[in-house]
UniProtKB/TrEMBL annotation:
Identification of the protein by name: ABC transporter-like protein
Source organism per UniProt: Mizugakiibacter sediminis
A GO molecular-function annotation: ATP binding
PROSITE patterns: ABC_TRANSPORTER_1, ABC_TRANSPORTER_2
InterPro entries registered for this protein in UniProt: AAA+_ATPase, ABC_transporter-like_ATP-bd, ABC_transporter-like_CS, P-loop_NTPase
Keywords: ATP-binding, Nucleotide-binding
PANTHER family reported in the protein's UniProt record: ABC TRANSPORTER G FAMILY MEMBER 20 ISOFORM X1, ATP-BINDING CASSETTE, SUB-FAMILY H, MEMBER 1
Domain ABC transporter stretches: 10-239
SUPFAM superfamilies assigned to the protein according to its UniProt record, in alphabetical order: P-loop containing nucleoside triphosphate hydrolases
Length: 318
């Protein structure tokens, strides 16, 4: 199905999903352009999977409007089946079918003619480095190999739009990088991708992304725009006791957010209210000697600021 050029691949307005008393997704507005790699970043339970499942037509919204590839969801979800692919962190293929048999089975579900199915499966096994493993049972593959096979199955019917829900959470760093190279190959060929992740380096690779927190969209834009739009100044604090330093700075004037990264601490502070000297002073008052230097903001800072501030604002820590 072709989509008119001027229409986004995904548009959602006021998207909401309640489970009993819990509002898992809260009045979400979203727009994903055609051909872009769009990221969903958020803490555990922030509503990423629930949103993706509603956009795919797998879960009914409690409220709101969704349009995907020009079709209204959930009303026209059936008509979208052929244009959309879906892949989750959980391996959804058959452990006791081989690497070659799994995508052939998926092809039969999509009613692909036999000869075309065989040709397509060969192409995909080669593209995702699975040809030599074709006779191996899927259940015996490594995490990275399983994800490549799952990707092959998800794109078998050449969907215009692919949803990926934390696709790399069970794979090693090198496999994660290779997997993302494959995602960009798909995007270069015109596929729109919406991918949720916990990993900052993956989010940074997206063309644009949305940060979710407790079901709400708390920031969206390109990684660059989000970093440039961060209010205040970021500081790197290096000291022997970063945890104690974090506690000492938590209530200090002008400090918006803090996050311990390895042995150091990143601090987001309001421009005029706190500079390096003021932070050093606040630390010294708690008996902590530290090196404090301004540092360029990164996506982690954006994430911490976006997901910490509302908690301070309304006092409703999850
Ligand atoms: N079927 C369900 N019934 C009741 N509550 C649910 C259901 N599905 C999700 N939730 C709740 O909705 C909230 C959002 O969950 P969701 O899985 O969408 O978050 P997530 O951001 O994908 O989390 P994670 O990163 O851990 O996968 C959570 O509090 C979760 O417990």
């Amino acid at each position: 199905m072709s989509v008119p050029d001027d229409r986004p691949a995904i548009r959602a307005r006021g998207l909401t999903r309640r489970f009993g008393a819990l509002t898992a997704v809260d009045r979400l507005d979203l727009e994903v352009r055609r051909g872009e790699v769009y990221g969903f970043l958020g803490p555990n339970g922030s509503g990423k999977s629930t949103t993706i499942r509603m956009l795919c037509g797998l879960l009914l919204p409690s409220a709101g409007d969704i349009e995907v590839l020009g079709r209204r969801i959930p009303q026209q979800a059936e008509a979208l089946k052929r244009s959309v692919g879906y892949m989750t962190q959980k391996f959804a293929l058959y452990d006791d079918l081989s690497v070659g048999e799994n995508p052939l089975f998926v092809a039969s579900v999509h009613d692909l003619p036999r000869a075309a199915a065989h040709a397509r499966v060969e192409t995909l096994l080669a593209r995702y480095w699975l040809t030599d493993l074709r006779r191996q049972l899927a259940g015996t593959l490594s995490g990275g190999q399983k994800q490549r096979l799952a990707l092959a199955a998800a794109v078998l019917h050449e969907p215009a739009l692919l949803f990926l829900d934390e696709p790399t959470s069970a794979v090693d760093p090198q496999s994660r990088r290779e997997f993302w190279d494959s995602l960009f190959e798909l995007a270069d060929a015109g596929t729109t991708l919406l991918v949720s992740t916990h990993y900052m380096d993956e989010a940074e690779r997206c063309h644009r992304l949305a940060i979710l927190d407790r079901g709400r969209l708390v920031a969206d834009g390109s990684p660059r725009a989000l970093m440039d739009g961060l209010p205040g100044q970021t500081f790197l604090v290096e000291c022997a006791a970063p945890r104690a330093a974090q506690q000492a700075l938590a209530g200090a004037p002008g400090v918006l957010a803090t996050a311990q990264i390895g042995a150091s601490l990143r601090v987001l502070a309001q421009g005029s209210a706190a500079d390096a000297a003021a932070l050093r002073h606040a630390l010294a008052a708690s008996g902590i000697g530290a090196r404090v230097e301004p540092t360029p903001p990164n996506l982690e800072d954006v994430f911490v600021a976006a997901t910490q501030r509302p908690r301070h604002a309304d006092g409703a820590a999850a």
